[in-house]
Each structure stands twice: as structure tokens, then as C-alpha cells.
Amino acid sequence: MTRKTLVAFVAAALTSATCFSQASQPAMLEDFKPSALNQPGQEYPQVNSQGYARFRIKAPKADSVRVSLGLGGKGGTILTKGDDGFWTGTTGGPMDEGFHYYNVTIDGGKFNDPGALNYYGSVRWESGIEIPAHDQDFYALKEVPHGNVQQVLFPSKSTGTSRRAFVYTPAGYEKDKSKKYPVLYLQHGWGEDETAWSNQGHANLIMDNLIAEGKTKPFIIVMTYGMTNEVKFGKIREFKIDPFQTVLTDELIPYVDANFRTMANRDNRAMAGLSMGGMETKMVTLNKPDMFGYYGLLSGGLYTPDDLKDKSKAKLIFISCGSKERPDGVTKAVADLKGAGYNAVSYVSDKTGHEFQTWRRSLHELAPLLFK
């Protein structure tokens, strides 16, 4: 992927981050309930059964309050001040199902909603809201055996420090000390960090449920910081894959193979990522085709047969996006790859855009295809 293509890709990704439809909607129902991501005991923000969100912020001395939703905090819901000093407002339409970042602008200053939990995105800690999804059962917390997500600090000579990663090990990993596992290296998007896939994406719960249902082979997931946030927005042309590739392939993978019971070979190692993490996945897998046997781009660009020419043949190429992104490009790319003899699979998340519900669903579709 050229830098010019990368700029276009990121711009398109940001533009596609629409949170709610502008089309005419049926009458709004007043069955609002607190969001599942609220701080303990907080009544707001709230969501209703149609996907509308309602916000209530105490700012008695403010002159204006607006809530900005979505990747980068674009758009806005204007709140109205009441006699009690609280500002209240409801989105102009239903939001897409799943997780959304948002922030509050009070008299020109950007703040987080004190009623909501915070999540790292857009290169800052943002408020989070969850719109209940019709298919949320696949990432629900259930009474099944649960894996473990642990923080590790691994030495990085290339950056002169210790770096952090989160490692998911499936249920049963601690019991059978002789069993080894394949590994998926799973990358976050621009402005996020290594906490995103567990906190916003529920990757561990998705895996727990799939494994309990016998739908996927148990494997380890490693999530680390993608060295993307050092590139300021608007300066994406300065992005280079080399520093992150060195950390991943020369430092993190050897650490994981030395400290976890892994099947340390290409056929049992996968890499995937969302958005800019997908772009990183494409670059790294093309540069290091002998290290990874499975590739996944989740709203993160495309492979072409020419990209893969004269490379070690991937065992699987998975490409996905939301239906509100560019699904035709995904399906055509996969058709071209199949025509060239590659094992390629496409997936389009229905009625979602460049957002975590797309990527939760994508991981749910990808995991059962890995390490067969």
C-alpha cells in the first residue's frame, strides 16, 4: 500500500464513521434505560429500544453543550439547558448497534461524560456508549469456561524500553501443561491501543463462547500497541511500518514463543487487524510472508493477486467491512483472489460502518476459519 493510498484509506475510514441515520424515522419511543457502559449508579446516558441515545450533563454555568459521537467525535447532538442546571438532548435518529466513542463539548472545551466509562480511542480516553445489538449474544458474558487476559511487559531493544501486550489464553491453558496453541496477533486501529480488542471488542468473550460451542479451535491472541499514535492526525504521510514490524517480528513474537506454549511456526501463526491495524497487517504479512500463514483485514484495506505474487502462499485470506463502508470492493477483491487460486473469504457486517460492531462480528466469523 502506497502512502497516497494510505491517506485515502484513512480519510475514507473517518468519513464513514456515521453513528445514526439521517433518513426519516418512526416516532421515538420513551423506553430509555441506562447504557450498559455507564459508571456505577449513573442513570445517563440512556438508550431506547430503537437505538436512540439520550444525554444529560450538569453544567449550570455553561452557555452551550454538545455531544459528539463516533470515531474522531464528528457530528453533534445539541443539548438544551433546564432550570435545574442540567443539559439534556437526544440523538436525531437511532445509532448503529454496538459500541461508540463520544465526548462532550462545553463552551468550546472537550470533556468526557462523567456518567460513562472511558475507553482509549481517537488518541485520548473517550466516553463510551453501547447500543444493544440484536446479535449481541455472541459476545455476551455467559456461564461457560473463561480464558484469561493478562498483561505482559516484553523487552524492546529497538525502542529502548519495555513494551506492553495483552495475551488471551483460552480456558484450560493452565491445566494441561503439555498442550501447545496457535497464535493470532490482533491489532487495533488508529488512535487506539492494546486495550481496545478486549475492552471495546470483547475478543475474549467472543473466543470463550465460540470455544464453548465447539465452533473454533482454541488459540492464543496477542494484542499490542501498533506504534500508530505517534503519527499525528493530518500527518499520516509520515507513517512507516518498519518500527512496528521490528517490535512485532523481532521482539514480541520471540518473547511470546519463549514464555507461552505456542506452536511456533508459520502454519500456526496468524495476523489480523482493524482499520489501520489491517493496513499494518497487510504491510507486515507482505514483508514477512514466511512468518504468518493466515491474514485478516477488518475494514483495513485489500489484497490483490499481484500483492501476493511470488510470496509464500497464505493458508487463508479474510477480508471484511461494514455494509456502510465499501462492501463491493471487499467482495471483488476476494473474488479476484479466489480466481487466482487463493483461499479467500469475504464478510460484510449488515447495517454497520467503520465501528466495533463490524469488527466484533468480523472476529466472530474469522476465528472458526483459523488454524484448520
Structure description:
This protein is of the alpha+beta class and 372 residues long. The protein folds into two domains: 28-132, Immunoglobulins (Immunoglobulin-like, Sandwich); 138-369, Alpha/Beta hydrolase fold, catalytic domain (Rossmann fold), CATH 3.40.50. Helices cover 23% and strands 27% of the residues. The protein has helices spanning 3-15, 196-199, 203-212, 242-259, 276-287, 305-308, 327-339, 356-366; strands at 33-34, 46-47, 53-58, 65-69, 77-78, 80-81, 86-90, 98-106, 109-111, 118-121, 124-131, 148-156, 161-169, 183-187, 220-224, 269-274, 294-298, 316-322, 344-349. This is Esterase. Pfam families: Esterase. Keywords: Signal. Residues 1-23 form the signal peptide.
Brief sketch in words of this structure:
This protein has 372 residues and is of the alpha+beta class.
List keywords for this structure.
single chain, 372 residues, alpha+beta, Immunoglobulin-like, Rossmann fold, 2 domains, eight-stranded mixed beta sheet, six-stranded antiparallel beta sheet, 8 helices, 23% helix, globular, disordered N terminus
How are the SSEs placed, and which strands pair?
Elements: H1 3-15, E1 33-34, E2 46-47, E3 53-58, E4 65-69, E5 77-78, E6 80-81, E7 86-90, E8 98-106, E9 109-111, E10 118-121, E11 124-131, E12 148-156, E13 161-169, E14 183-187, H2 196-199, H3 203-212, E15 220-224, H4 242-259, E16 269-274, H5 276-287, E17 294-298, H6 305-308, E18 316-322, H7 327-339, E19 344-349, H8 356-366
Parallel strand pairs: 14-15, 14-16, 16-17, 17-18, 18-19
Antiparallel strand pairs: 1-2, 2-3, 3-7, 4-5, 4-8, 6-7, 8-9, 8-11, 10-11, 12-13, 13-15
